[in-house]
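Tokens for chain A. Residues wanted.
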């Protein structure tokens, strides 16, 4: 179940390729709970806004994710 917007979160990202762990903090930026499918339905889940300074490795991970979704 997604958390409510503005809820604080602490996330640990485990990179299996390098066995590296990245710890970040943030807040829930948007949240959509499960709803019966209609003509237009928002995706279920939540988005996180990262807070504070992020590590160089985390910045690289974010850029890598952007490259996967941008044409």
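Reply:
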């Amino acid at each position: 179940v997604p958390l409510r917007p503005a809820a604080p979160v602490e996330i640990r990202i485990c990179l299996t390729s390098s066995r590296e762990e990245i710890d970040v903090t943030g807040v829930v930026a948007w949240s959509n709970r499960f709803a019966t499918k209609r003509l237009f339905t928002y995706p279920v889940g939540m988005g996180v806004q990262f807070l504070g300074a992020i590590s160089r490795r985390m910045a690289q991970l974010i850029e890598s994710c952007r490259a996967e979704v941008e044409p």
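Residues 36 and 42 are 11 Å apart (CA to CA). Helices lie at 56-69.
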